[in-house]
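Dear colleague,

Following up on Tuesday's group meeting, I ran the structure prediction for the two-component complex that the binding team flagged. I've pasted the input sequences exactly as they went in, so you can double-check that nothing got truncated or mislabelled along the way. The structure tokens for the whole assembly follow below. Feel free to forward this to whoever is handling the docking comparison.

Inputs:
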Amino acid sequence: NAGVTQTPKFRVLKTGQSMTLLCAQDMNHEYMYWYRQDPGMGLRLIHYSVGEGTTAKGEVPDGYNVSRLKKQNFLLGLESAAPSQTSVYFCASIGQRDNSPLHFGNGTRLTVT
Amino acid sequence: KQEVTQIPAALSVPEGENLVLNCSFTDSAIYNLQWFRQDPGKGLTSLLLIQSSQREQTSGRLNASLDKSSGRSTLYIAASQPGDSATYLCAVDSNYQLIWGAGTKLIIKP
């Protein structure tokens, strides 16, 4: 009964380094989302996917890329990390857009120095 | 562009009190509105989801209302307990994306 699992939980990067955050869900959900959460602000959508092989830009996509090669996995990549990308990143998923609630992972805390 | 606002940003009340958290949104064309709870260092847990055609939803001591015409939702918590201490966020489903408020940090004092 894992739900939505994010790895890693914590990461520290130096400016210019790259990394990939992994989100995995075992609920056969179609829709998956990547958000960032910064102090005093609501969650902001980075990218989302409406099904395997699809991706779309959200509110703040610059500096990030995503892939959804398998239905259960949604990867978020930072090609060249910047201090402005220091944040907590959350992945979420939903089966169908049928008034079911989002299921969230526990987040990845990323610090870019 | 849809914008979601939550007031107040923080609230501290004694245990046992009934309280109301507010959420307002600028565009009434929403698919649904959801209330979430977030504990420190944790992800978000869904509390209540109100479809656009509904006026309210209830779960235990929680009651959420929706007034699309005025762009408002309230989350009513009855007989508050210290375990209710958390940050409460509302989000509106607008065009396949959830637009979020910044949250209300609630502290229930024993």
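The two ends of chain A are 36 Å apart (CA to CA).

Cheers,
M.
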